Structures are given as structure tokens and as C-alpha cells.
Amino acid sequence: MIILIIVFIIMLMIDLPSVIRNGKKKILIAYGLIFTFSFTICLLLALEINIKSPLMFVDEFYKNILHFSY
Amino acid sequence: MLNKFKKFLFLLMVFILVFTASGCYDIRELDSLYIVTGMAMDKAEQPGLIEVSVQIAKPGALGSGGGGDKKGGGGEEKATIIIDSVKRNVIEALEALRHDSSRTLFMHHNQVLIFGREQAEAGILPYLDASMRDQETRLEVMVLVADEKAKDVLNTEIKAEKYSAVGIRRMVDNKRSISKFFGIDLLTLVSKLTEETTSPLLPIIKIVEEEDLTRLSLTGMAVFKKDKMIGKITEYQLRGYSWVMGELKSGYLPVKLKQGSSVMYVKSSKNKLNTIFKPDGKPIMSMEIEGVFSVGELMGFEEMDTKQIVDELKKGAEQAIRKEIMSCFKSVQSMKADIYGFGDYINKHHPKKWKTLKPQWEELFPSLELDLKIKVEIKDTGKILQSPQMEIGRLS
Amino acid sequence: MNIEKSRISPLQFMFAIMCFIRSSSLLSSFFTPIVNQDSWLVIIFGMIVSLPVLWIYISLSKAFPKSNLIEINDLVFGRIGGKIISAFYLWFFFTLTALNLRDLGIFVGKSTMSKTPPVLIIIVFILLCAWAVYYGLEVVTRYGIVFILISSAILLLSFLVSINIMHRESFLPILNQPLKSYIQGTNIITMIPFGELVVFLMIVPYVDFKQKKLVRYFMGGFLLGGLLLLAVILRDLAILGNTLKYFSLPSFETLRIIRLFDSLGHMEILFAILLIILLFFKVTLLFYISLLALSYWLKIETFRPFILPVAALLVAYSFIMFESSMQQTAFAREIIPFFWPIFEMLLPFITLIVAYIRELPKKNREKEKEDVKV
Lengths: 70, 396, 374
Description:
The complex is a heterotrimer.
Chain A: H1 2-22, H2 25-46, H3 54-66
Helix pairs in contact in A: 1-2
Chain B: H1 2-21, E1 33-43, E2 50-57, E3 80-87, H2 90-100, E4 104-106, E5 112-115, H3 117-122, H4 125-133, E6 142-146, H5 150-155, H6 164-176, E7 184-185, H7 186-194, E8 201-209, E9 214-225, E10 228-233, H8 235-245, E11 252-256, E12 260-277, E13 283-300, H9 306-335, H10 342-349, H11 351-357, H12 361-364, E14 369-380, H13 388-395
Parallel strand pairs in B: 1-4, 1-5, 5-6, 6-8, 13-14
Antiparallel strand pairs in B: 1-2, 2-3, 6-7, 8-9, 9-10, 11-12, 12-13
Chain C: H1 10-22, H2 32-35, H3 39-63, H4 69-111, H5 118-134, H6 137-142, H7 144-161, H8 179-194, H9 213-240, H10 250-257, H11 268-298, H12 307-320, H13 325-334, H14 336-357, H15 360-373
Helix pairs in contact in C: 1-7, 1-9, 1-11, 3-8, 3-9, 3-14, 4-5, 4-11, 4-12, 4-14, 5-11, 5-12, 7-11, 8-14, 9-10
């Protein structure tokens, strides 16, 4: 957990200066979104909260609804 | 350019470091290991349990080298330790061994896997799975069947070898140099078990007790039906088996004739297998066996010239080979065990016919006919052209 | 907008394709238990079936020589439609990268470092990939040639030293299994290494091609890579015979068996490293392509700041993807043959058709001509 947060802070320290220096708002927003998304997923994983894999949705969709499978 | 090269070097070094260093995660120092050299599995006295014994190269004896072996000293310590545990399955037993000893078991150098006779008769397949699945064991480990208890085999010392399991491995390797079918590794065994109709053969290792020493000897093969041992074939019959498989690389063939007797070395053998189908659909296995020999020893053959002798020898050898083959074939026919993999051969070469034959193969095999064509070639007479005996015979 | 400024040579492009396919030899256990001794035939079938698919890719990139897949989508489907279609592709690229990352973690775990936790291996690995990606396409593809040469040399060597334990009978009987298993096997092989070549549509515009040569290099890479894959399967099959179906990593098991002499055996660690390097190449390329697609999708001029967060996301994704390796294998065998075609065949095909109906590339050229005139 703590390691994870430290790792993400280090990532922020590496990337953020160049993003801000770049000066474009669009990049900053995109970076913020991606970073938060990634951080949330990793955090959920670290907290051992079950995240349903998108591939499993596909699996169920194909097996139960389309009945397309070998 | 130089900059790029430097970058590349840097990357390379990081790459190497990262991959070697992260392997240290489960670092195991040599002196904290038990190096397993052999493994034996016996049926335990309690039903349903298995006794797993492992032979371990004794840590202190390691590294002292083979040169400093003392001879004949009664006080010499054994170089191996045997530990065992009785559990329901192999993994449980190995885990128990791991916990009970001061060191971790290191399976990479396991040389042999020996099944006790009782276990072999009860079935070996459930215990092969663990050996195949484990990442540490290798598929080239030799599989044998002990004549009695497998643990006792591991316990028996071999004179020239420090670790008897290594010795057993070398014994098998020696025999395998005659024909590769004389010893079977795990992969081949599993492959034969996969061919549904083929019966695997495993070499039998026996403890021979002589007056003042006990030694090990490999005699004959155990015949398996599926994964259960159902019988044995002798050394003599085993040669018959390898003639059919066409894989004799050395060995000898004694030939007895009216005029005298001879022992001939086998140089090589070949076999061309073919299936002929009778009008009623039953197969006949036809073989063209070709054996190349050199003369090893001659006795008798008085008043004959070399050409005559060679002709006679050829006939005699043909007879001898036929006898060996038929002896083996009759014996396995009575056991209903297709050790040659004839069924698999038909499956591979005549898949359509096999579909109808497969359900009745069990009944077909005991009445299967062989059509043997044996060709003998004598290439060499050894260092001498004529036997000294022959000279004497001619003089008298 | 032009993110990737470096250009790669056609040869590098070709070797990248070869490497990409070759590294899939690790995954042969997806189809070997289905078709057993006919695995090699299935590869040939797969290559034949893949030819029309490749034709779609080639005609797409011929029609739009200056645009990558995301840009093509924008051109063909308009702004909003393109964004939606591209989002699907984006997800597909990410999934592919995470899948390969996962395979890599499993392979390293199974082959060399059985007790190191896979998370460490994967993190270390993705960091290396991130570094390579940081320097751009040229660096990513530069060593493809070297990897292919080394791996081919080792493949040849392994053929030579194992010739005495190969069995001709392993290949018999030919074509003696239910038709369904051939269809399934061919389907899997078409989707898993060959169809994945759709990712190369992202980098075609950065190759210094003369128009006509595109076919030659694309097809060349595909055919040579396929042949390498075929050779690997032939070797594994000849050595392992009917036990091929038991192993989850047939190639590695084969290499474990090969030994020169008593003392010079067990060289599998070298082969393992080689396979890891090949997989490294594949993951790096996929990672690069995902990032490139992401930044084109967002219309942002650089992807460099995104490397680390995306890497972290990929690591997490590769872990939540499947609960077990059995689940993964089942998914690869049963669902992927029906699911991947959406990205690998259906969408590119639709793109091609729509472009044809809207007569898109022509318009572009006319525009260019007009521009020149003006």
C-alpha cells in the first residue's frame, strides 16, 4: 500500500514538471485523468478489492448470450 | 553515434543486472540444500498410502572429489542419506520431507525414479503426474521397477560409485548403449502410456546377495498393461523385443550349430515394419529385419572353408534371431500386452482401418500373426581370419 | 500533428513483424492439445487463411499511406464515429499488451525464477519497456534484426543437436481428427499471432517505403515469421511426440530435453533468456503502439508523460485480467477465436468498405494536387 503510494508520488515527480513546463492545458488534463485512473485501479488491486476483468464480461457475453464458443 | 552506443551498453547492462539480480529472490546456497540423487516410491503398509524415499548426496561428501576414495576400509561412511515419509501422495510426502529436515530438497539432479514392485502392480500413473508437473524435475529421469522394495535398492551400495543412484543411472545408460529400449526415461514412458494400446516396459532392478557383498543388477523388463505391472520378460526375450524395434547397436548373439558354435557381435540392426491386411480385415505384421554381425568367437567348424562357415553362420544366426523374437512375442501375447506398439503403428499408418480394429485389439493381439523375413550379414571376422582351432583340426 | 519523427527502414519493419510472430511460439499450447500431431498443418492452414486478412491491412495502408490506424478511422468515419471505433482499438491494444505482459510473467516464473513473485518480474520488465518506448519507434525496432538472427541461429542449432531424438512417426497419422478441431485450431492460430499484425497498421506510416514495396516487406515478414513458427512447432512435435499436448510450454520443455553430452546438457536457461528477449520485443512494440494510439486518440503531441501511468495501469490490468492460467487458456481457446476477429478482421474490413464507398483516398489525393497547384 504505502509502497504503491510512494511509487505513484515518484511517478508524479518525474512527469509533472515536464507536463507543467509544456504549458498546454489539454496535456495536463489528460495526464491527470490517466494518472488518477491508473492510481485508482492499482489502489483497488492493492486493497484486494475484486475488480471484474473486462475480458470476463466478454466471456460471459459470448457464452451466455451469443452462445458462440467452441 | 557514440552516444547511441553508450546508451545501448547502458541498457544492456541494466538488462543483465536486472534479470540476474531478480533471480536472487529465492536464492539457495549450496550448503543449505539437500541434493536429491534418487527417488523411490513404495506401497506403504497402510492401504492407500505411498512411501516416498529420496536419496541425498551427503553434503560433506560433496566436493571431496572422486579421486580420494578409500578402498576396503570397513569404517568408511556412506556418502548418501536416505530419508523417507509415508503420505497419501507424492507432494505431501516431499513437503513432509522438506519440513522434517534442516535443508531444502533440490530435485534438479534427480537421476532415477524407482517404483517398488507392489506399487508397480497397483499402478504408477497417479504418481507420475507430480513428477511431470514439478518445475524442478527433469523429464530425462530414468524410471525403473525394483524387484522387491524400491527403498532397499536405493539403500544398496555400488562399489565403484559414491552415490548409488548415480550408479544405477550409469548402469541403465550402459544398457541403453546396446539398445535405447533397454532403459526408459519419464518422457518416453508417458509417451507410451499415451498411446492407448501400447504396453510400456520398464527395466527391473534386482538386489543380488552374494557371499560377502550385495550388488544391484538389471535383469529383464517389467511388462505393464496401462500403468499396472502384469508380468516380466527375460533378458533373452528382451533381445527379441529389440530386434523387432530395430534398434540394436551392440550386444552379441550366440549361435549353436551341428558343426560347432559361435558368438557373434551385433553391429547394427534395422527393421522395416509393414502391415498386410488379410481379406477378412485382420492384420499381419510383416517385418524385414536386417542384422549386421561380426564374428566374435568360433568353436568347432572343422574341415570347412571360410565361405562355408559364413553361410552356415548366417543360417544359424537367422534361426537364433527368429527364436528370440518368437519367444518374446509368444510370451507377451499370452499377457495380452502390445509392447511393440503394433496397434499404434496401425493407427499411424492406416488410421481408417484402425478405427474398426481398435475396439477388438485386445482380442486380436493374442492371435496376431508375424511374418518375419530375416536377413543376416556378416561383415567382419575380427582380427583373425581363421580360428587356431581350425588349423589344428585341419592338421589332424 | 506528428508525434513520431523518426523513420524506420523497411527491413527493420520486416524483422519487427518476424519477431512479433516468432515470439508467439511461446503460446503454442493454446492449440497443441486441440490438434495434437497436426499442429504444424494447422499453422500452414492459419497462414493461408491469414492471407486475405493481410490483404485488408495492406490495402488499407496503401490507401492511406500517410496515416496510422487511428487517423484512418477519423478520416473514414468522421470525427465522432472515428473516436468511438478508435476507442475499441485502443482497448484492444491495451488488452494485447497486458496479455503479453502476463504471459511473460508466467513464462519467467515457470522457466527460471519459480519463486520470485510475478509482480516484481512484470514491474521490472515494464520499466525496461518504458525506457525503450521513451526513445521512440527507432529504438524499439532497432534490435529486431539481432534478435531474429540470434533466435534463428539457436533454432538451427537446436535442430542439429536434437536430430537423434526426433521421431518421424510423431507426425502420423495425418488429418485423422474431427474436422471441428482443425477449424478451431486454425481459427486460434489465425487470431493469436497472425491477426495481431493489425497493430502494425499503427506504424506503417513511419516506414520509409516506396509504395510498391510495402506488399513485399509486409508479406515477407509474415511468411518468414510464419516459417519460423512452423519450424519451432515441427521441432517440438518431432521431439515430444504424443506428449506434446501435456505441456503448457512445449518449446521450453523440448529445450530442457536437448543435451549434447552428459556434461553439456541443460542449456535451457540460454533459450529461456532468448525467449524472454523476444517477448520483451513484442511487449515493447505493443506498449509503444498503445501509447501512440492513445496520444493520437486524445490528439496530444506527445505520449512521454503518459508512459509511467500507463505502465502502472498495464501491470494492474495484467493482474486483474484472469484469475488463473486455466481461465486464460480457456478464454484463449474458446472466446478469442470469436472475439478477436472483431478487431482483426471485421473493423478493418468495414473501414476499407466505407472508405471505398466514400471514395476517400482519391479525394485526398485530389486535394493534395489542388494544394500543389495553389
